[in-house]
Structure formats: C-alpha cells, structure tokens
Amino acid sequence: MRVTRRFWLTLAAIGSLLVGGGLLDAPMLVVGAVGLAGWLLAMQLAFVRGVSRIKNELTVSQSLDRPRVRTDVETTYTLQASVDADSDHLPLSVEATVPLAARMEAGQSPRIDLDTSMQSSSVTVPLTWETVGDHTVPGPTVTITDGTGLFTQSFTTDAGPEIRVASPSVGPVHVGQGGKQLLRGVGEHDARGRTGGLSAEEIRKYVPGDALKYVDWKATARLDEAHVRNYEAESNRSVVLLLDHRHTMADGPPGETKLAHLKAVAAAFRQRAETIRDPLGYLTVDDEGVTDSVVPVARTEAYRSAQHRINDLTAEAETHAVATGAATWTGSMAHRDPTVETRSPMEMTLLAYRDAAGSNRHLPNQPLYNGFQAAPLEIRSADLLVICTDDSNRTELRNTVGLARRNATEVVVFITPTVAFDPDLITDLDAAYERYRDFDQFRRELNEIESVTAYEVGSPDQISAILSRNPANTERGHV
Amino acid sequence: MSLTQGTRERPRDPLPTGIGLLGIIAATSGLVLGGPTWLVFTGIVLGGLYLLGTPVLAVVFGQIGIVAVDAPSLLTLALVEGGLLVTLLSMAVRTPDGRVAGSLVAGVVPLLGGVAWLSLWQWNLEPLLVGSSLLSGAAVVGYLLHRYLLIDLDIVTADAASDSDIP
C-alpha cells in the first residue's frame, strides 16, 4: 500500500493539532487530532477491505490473435478487464507491459481505467514483434485508488499469452532431386536408426562404407572376416547440422539467398529433432574456418541455441583473401591459427601436404572439410549428419562427404546450385540448363555413395525456369 | 491505433454533499451558540473549505474554533463534535463501499475520541502524552493493515524476514 500526498497533508494536520494542543494546553485540539487519526484508520481499513474484494472480483485477460508469428509482422493484442460486482467498486486502472521483444506503433502502453461504476472494458492495440524466440506477455499491473485519494495499491496479475516469433520466411523452398520435389517432409527420418542403438539386432559381413565404429571386433576375430553389428534403435539418434555460411552463400536476391534457403532446411531439421527429442548439435563454418560448434545433446536449451544460431547465421561478402585450412581445435570451439594470414600461398600449400601425411590432414582453402575433420568425435560420429552448403567448391564437398561417410552413420547433403541463384539466369536459360545438368550430375555422384543422400535446394521459380529448357520437361513440385 | 470497447456503466449514486454541509451547519451553530458572534464567519470558512474539497481542513479549523469558546457547554460540544463527525462521515459514505466505510468511521472515531476524552478529563493525563500514545497505537494498527494487504495480494509472504523488498 502506498500513501498519497493527501495522506501526508492529513497527517501533518493531525500532528499540528497534537503539538498545538500540547503547547497551548488545549485538550480539545488533542481530541480533534485523535478523532482525525481514527478517521484515517477507518478509511484505511475500508480501503484494505475494498482491495481484497476487488482482488477476488477482478478478471484481467490478455490475448494475441495468433500464437506464432514472424518477425516484423503485426499482431493484435487485446487487454480486457472486468469486475464481477453488483455494487460500485474502488476505481482502478490496468496497464499492460509491452514485452521487450515487441514494439508498439505509437503512444503509451495499453491501459484500461475502470471507474467506480464501470464493470468492464477492453483495449486493442497492434504489436509488432522484432526478436526471434519464445516470448510471454508479462502480467499487467493493476493500480487501485481509494475514493478519497489517500491510498493506492498496485499488484501484478498472471502472465499473459505466449507467442513464438520466427525469422522471416524465404517463401516456398524447393527441396528435391533432379527437379523432383522431395515427397517426405524435410527433416523427417525413420525413428529407428540402422545402427546406433543399444541392443544388438544382427551381425553381418562388413561392406565397404560401413563406419568403423560398428565393426564387431570379437566376431571379426572369431570368423576371420570383418563383421559389423547392427543395432536395434532403442534411443533417438544424434543429429548434427553442418552449416556453411561462407561468402558464396550470400548469392541470390536479398532475403532469398542460398543461405536463407538452407536456413529453412536446417530449421526444419532442428524442429524435427526437438519434436522427437533427438540429440542435436551443429557446426558452422565460414571462409576463415569453424565459427561455432555444439556437440549433440537433447536439451531444450540446446534446441533453442541451435535455433538462434541458425537465425543469426549470415554470409558476409568476401573481404579478404580466403587462405584458410589450418583451423585448430581446442575444447568445443575451433580457434583460428593466428599465423594463417601471414603465410604465403606457397607455405599454405606445402603445409597442407605436410599435414596430409599425418593424422590431421588439412586441405588448403577447404574450411568445410578442415572444420569437420577437426570437430569433436561426437560431431563427426553423429548418427545423422546434415550438410547444408552449395556447389561452389565441389572437390571440397566431395572430400567432406567422403570424410563424413567414414564417420557418421547417415549423411544427407543439401546443396544450393549456384546456377539457380545467378542474377543472369533469365538472360540465357539454355546455358543455365546446361549448368544445372552439370550440377545434377555432381549431385547424383554424391547420392550414389552408400548412406549418402543429396538434395538440391532452391527457389521453385528459378528451378522451374531452368527446367523449362529441359526437352523432357522434368516433373517437379514445390514445398 | 488503440481501440477501447465493451464498456458498461451503471447509474451513479448521488453524492452525500448535503450531509456534510449539514454537519458544517451544526458545528457552526454550536460555535455561535457557545462563543462570540464573529464565529459565524468560521462557519463560512468551514463551508467553503468543505465545498472546495478539503473537508479535513474544515474539521481542523472547526476544532480550532472550539478553543475560542470559553467553557463550552455540553450542548455546544455535542453540536460541534457531532457536526464535525458528520462531515467526516459524509466523506466516508462518498466512497464506493460507502456503507462499510461510514460504519467504520462512525465506530472508530467516537471510540478513539471517547478514549481521549476520558484520558484528559476523567483521568487527567497529559494531553501530549495521551495524543502521542493514541496516535502511536493507530500507527501500529495502520502498519499491520498494510502488511495484511501485502500478504493478501501475495506481494509478500507471511514470513517478513524472507521478503527482501517490501513495497
């Protein structure tokens, strides 16, 4: 309870009467002071009773017109207050607190004033959400004043609705193979993994391409031939997103770059992993090497962290010579070798061959490959590795997929064909179609590797425009 | 853009200003009855203060006015004190929960006034001592009411030591 200026003035008058009565030996003034103090006390008692009553009779509700929204999209917020009372109540105001993640067009926070005889009121304002994430509208503050203006009391009601704010969408995304749309939703996979569970399902002969970690050494020794053990999937499989955000990923119109399309794919995998509680990790790589990495864990914070990382990924235009390949790994993060930029191209090439002779084989100008190679074992040996990149450096991608296949159980590669993001695409569609065929040939090569699946990712319109030059007019679809 | 809607109102009860003015008239009558005629101007001042929205000041001046009366009779005291009590009552019944507030004022004010009266005239205690004691007691009760409200609103818990910041 807070007292107002009027209360203090009344108290000053009481004090004056008391002191005056004492100094002037006028008992009547003291009686007056005591009487006024009694009046003040009675009014306080009435106020406390009135506030307690309102607390039980007041209903404050907040609502948003939708539970999910994208950034910079306007939502409608409604604040409603009603007092379920037969008689008059103390005057009150209900003021909402606009979340930090949201922005109001203008004016003060939404506020409702309920006079003594008003029973209900509501206010509706537009809110624009600016920050990606899950947000809760804080509980509004109710302020009650008494009829004589002596006391006020404020309290906060329960928090309001929750809203999930997502990053802007790039619109429809084509994910498919050879122009054909992927029929199963992006991110979906069998809940039961081929390997990686806890209980053994069968032992079979080793075939080239099987991960070494599944070789059953006892059976191999006993049968004198390499055997691997298949497992029944009793636990969820770990998923790692390998995200490329080098400068080439900035190709394409603003908001519809290669990276924007691949972020949508990565977000779908993240969403799927969170839904079925698959352990999720990620590794992000730019022109200089590894920028971030998290080993797979199945915790809510990890899924949120992955979402924020995906949203925050940017592909900056190239500002310096790309001369990387010596990223070193310490703990869970890769730290760039400070001497890299001072080395000459000749040194870099020679060092790469020197490293190739050892276990830590770094390849010049292949940060994706080097970053994955230097990643912790938990990342390299994921049950499902999702590589999101483009076809700018096909040799590097081929090397990376090969390396990934030797470690991870299953590899899915999402590639944005550079030709589909070429601004001069429309000018020569025939040439573009030839480039696309070349890309598709490369994608097929990757796809033919056992346990590797390669998809193309791009704008449906661009892919459609390219395929329009196909004599067979390849069938395709959209997501 | 802001849109407010869905407001329902009920007719408002008439304000008991007349009751307050009646109290002022009764107090002025008491003052004039027991004191000099110029005290009628005090009545005008009291009425003005009441109508200007400062009834507490009107009560304070009414109480000061009675000091100017030499040896006030019981009738004078009854009129003045009763009139001022009615003025305070009129403020209480003006509040939304007027019936309860009026009852409280009608009970608490005569009670404390009566205790003060007895202490001063029957038990011949020091005015300053009596006044400060009764005001201290009222302050303690007021603080307890404050704490009760905070607990009732779940702003603090009943364990005062566990509450780091009390509003």
From TrEMBL, chain A:
InterPro entries: DUF58, TAT_signal. The chain crosses the membrane at residues 7-24. It comes from the Archaea. PROSITE patterns: TAT. This is DUF58 domain-containing protein. Residues 202-299 form the DUF58 domain. Keywords: Membrane, Transmembrane, Transmembrane helix.
UniProtKB/TrEMBL annotation, chain B:
It comes from the Archaea. Residues 18-161 form the DUF8163 domain. The chain crosses the membrane at residues 20-41, 48-68, 74-93, 100-121, 127-145. InterPro entries: DUF8163. Keywords: Membrane, Transmembrane, Transmembrane helix. It comes from Haloarcula mannanilytica. This is DUF8163 domain-containing protein.
